[in-house]
Amino acid sequence: MINWKDYFQFTRKERNGIIFLIAVIVFVWIAYFIIDSFFKPNAIDYSHFEKQVDLFYNSIKTDSIIENKDSTNINFTNKDSCIVDINAPTLNFLLCIGLNEHLSKTWINYINKGGSFHKIEDVKKLWGMNDSIFNSILPYLTITVHENKFEYNTYPKETKRNYTKPEKKIEMVELNTADTAQLDALPGIGSSFASRIVKYRNRLGGFYDKEQLKEIYGLNQELYEKISPYIYVDVFEVKKVNINTSDYSTLIQNPYFTKEAVKAILQYRKKSGKFNNANDLMIHQIISQEEWAKLKWYVEF
């Protein structure tokens, strides 16, 4: 059986270790009190901070007193003294002009959450606002339009402001190089007519006269006169086809060539060779002089 005294029996090394540990503890304890007595931390003076807090608190109280005095100067029983800026309303003023507390708080919450009104009539969009209530408070509403400037309600007078829309500058358009976006910008033209113009231009090879636009389906005299001041043609952009080498599909693409004329041209080339000039076409009655007046811009020999 183990005797309790056995717990207090130590070897020489163990006794030396215990003595050393006790000595260290005593040394640390003494050092703490010595350091604390010689190196006391400087006390922080909070008096200046406390004075600033007191001044701030007193200023808040003063402002609240002034606001209360200002509000007491307003007779909330007289609606005429209660003018409400619809983008900066207060509860007292809204109640003063006859709104109930629920609708007044709804209005203020809408403004506090970042909402705003662009015109006085927008107030009718508030939840709970109807025409009857709006008409009753209308004479007491104003709206802020610029910095510190107010636009007073003129709604009941039904006055109209004359406003002239600035004229849009229209750029000149060259018909043989313009894309659909440039044509679309012309007055009265639009994407549909712009597409038709480009397709017809591609069939012809280009325009030699801007009046050729009247040959396009739907483009009448009235519309032509509307765009005429803004268009012009560069005849050097017109593409020509060689009448002696072009095949049937190339020649028939031009709307000024008839099927009969194209067949006659191919047959003549097969039997007699090349055309030398326009006289060869008209002598053999392939095309008329009137037709040649148009085709001469698109044909080369």
Kindly estimate the percentage of residues that lie in beta strands according to DSSP.
Answer: 5-15%
Radius of gyration, in Å, reads 49 Å
Overall pLDDT confidence: 81
Regions with little confidence, pLDDT below 50 for 5+ residues: 65-73, 146-152
Structure description:
Strand 2 and strand 3 (149-152) form a beta hairpin. Residues 65-73 and 146-152 have low confidence and may be disordered. The strands form three sheets. A three-stranded mixed sheet has the order 1-2-3, with no helix packed on it. Strands 4-5 form a two-stranded parallel sheet. Strands 6-7 form a two-stranded parallel sheet. It is mainly alpha-helical and 301 residues long. The protein starts with 11 loop residues before the first helix and ends with a strand. The protein is 45% helix and 7% strand. Among the domains are: 79-157, Photosystem II 12 kDa extrinsic protein (DNA polymerase, domain 1), CATH 1.10.150; 173-237, Orthogonal Bundle (DNA polymerase, domain 1), CATH 1.10.150; 241-300. It is elongated. It is built from twelve helices and seven strands.
